[in-house]
Amino acid sequence: MTTIDWDSAAASFDEEADHGLLDPVVRRAWARRLESWLPAEPCDVLDLGCGTGSLALLAAGQGHRLTAVESSPRMVERARTKLAGTGAGVLVGDAARPPVGDRRFDVILARHVVWLLPDPAAVLRHWAGLLRPGGRLVLVEGVWNGDGLSAGHLTTLLAPLTERVHHERLSDDRDLWGKEVDDERYALVARAHRPHRHTEVVDVHLILRRGSDVLLARRAGTGYADGLLHAPSGHVEDGEDVRRALIRETAEEIGLDLDPQELRMALVMQHRGPGGDPRTGWFFEVAYDRTRPPYNREPDKCSELAWYPLDDLPDDMVAYCRAGLDGYRAGERFLIHWHEDGDTIAYEPEGTRRAVALPVSEGPGEG
């Protein structure tokens, strides 16, 4: 794997014709290609390894909603300046594991990124999981002086993840590069497999009780709901049941090693976020043990842990979590909660309560 100091390269990065797109001819050439690779209707695009944001700027100019990720803080500074006023978000983070939380996208765009990855197959699997059904990967790659990734190799890596792969040779279009080139340069547009059955994320939430108080964590640096409070939580991973998932997430986030016998089932809630993305959350109650105080094990994702009265929860919470705790406090056991597409993920005290409690059977009874 080639290592490049992108911070040092930031100041001169845009001097390359295909980086800065300062030449109108080069800029128009890339704009035409993007227009053909991206959906005709405005969509959510995740630009990974965005550099100084030149391609993201073109895509935003075509009406798309951009989130860009770049590992170099200096590159990010330049990208944010370039994209100011477009509504695009630019995050500092690893393209291999972009800090976008639970968000899903219609397109993942990456130019000259895959060839630098130590395990491209694993990263492509992760990227495919960030796509909405029917989404696409747009990958611009090449082979330069023996370095890079051939179109044949990358197509092979994409085959298990996609329905079809469209290949475009880019070497012959001098307008893209501002000069003649004779190496292998190409784009692959790969459409992700459409799921044949409905699937949704299963996540787990810890309600740690210290008398009438519950423990909440303030999210930070994740790219999703940063600054808002949420119960310690996470996704169920392959091969886990919900109890094991909660025990693992609790240890990872707040340093508590729980025994399965400590867990008490509190609430199950199906939730739909803005724009879709349904999930089912399992909320477990655990009693606080003063001999095992929780502590923040993920300061890069959590800015604080604090106790709050269950009967007087703060307003600055993730709406999904707040709905679950409100239902738990009311003695409800099964909820359906949803967002309309225009709703914010933050709890709104004066907003509409979008939750329905499902009645619980009294059992078969007699006779």
Give the helix/strand layout:
Layout: H1 6-13, H2 17-20, H3 24-37, E1 44-48, H4 54-61, E2 65-70, H5 73-83, E3 89-92, E4 105-111, H6 120-129, E5 131-144, E6 147-148, H7 151-158, E7 162-169, H8 174-177, E8 184-192, E9 201-210, E10 213-219, E11 229-230, E12 233-235, H9 242-254, E13 264-273, E14 276-287, E15 302-309, H10 319-329, E16 334-338, E17 355-357
Parallel strand pairs: 1-2, 1-4, 2-3, 4-5, 9-14, 13-16
Antiparallel strand pairs: 5-6, 5-8, 7-8, 9-10, 9-12, 10-11, 10-15, 13-14, 16-17
Structure at a glance:
This protein has 367 residues and is of the alpha/beta class. The chain has helices at 6-13, 17-20, 24-37, 54-61, 73-83, 120-129, 151-158, 174-177, 242-254, 319-329, and strands at residues 44-48, 65-70, 89-92, 105-111, 131-144, 147-148, 162-169, 184-192, 201-210, 213-219, 229-230, 233-235, 264-273, 276-287, 302-309, 334-338, 355-357. The chain folds into two domains: 6-192, Vaccinia Virus protein VP39 (Rossmann fold, 3-Layer(aba) Sandwich), CATH 3.40.50.150; 201-357, Alpha-Beta Complex (Nucleoside Triphosphate Pyrophosphohydrolase).
Written description of the protein model:
The structure is a single chain. This protein is α/β, with parallel strands linked by helices. 25% of the residues lie in helices and 31% in strands. The protein is built from 10 helices and 17 strands. The strands form 2 sheets. Strands 9, 10, 11, 12, 13, 14, 15, 16 and 17 form a 9-stranded mixed beta sheet that branches. The protein starts with 5 loop residues before the first helix and ends in a 10-residue tail after the last strand.
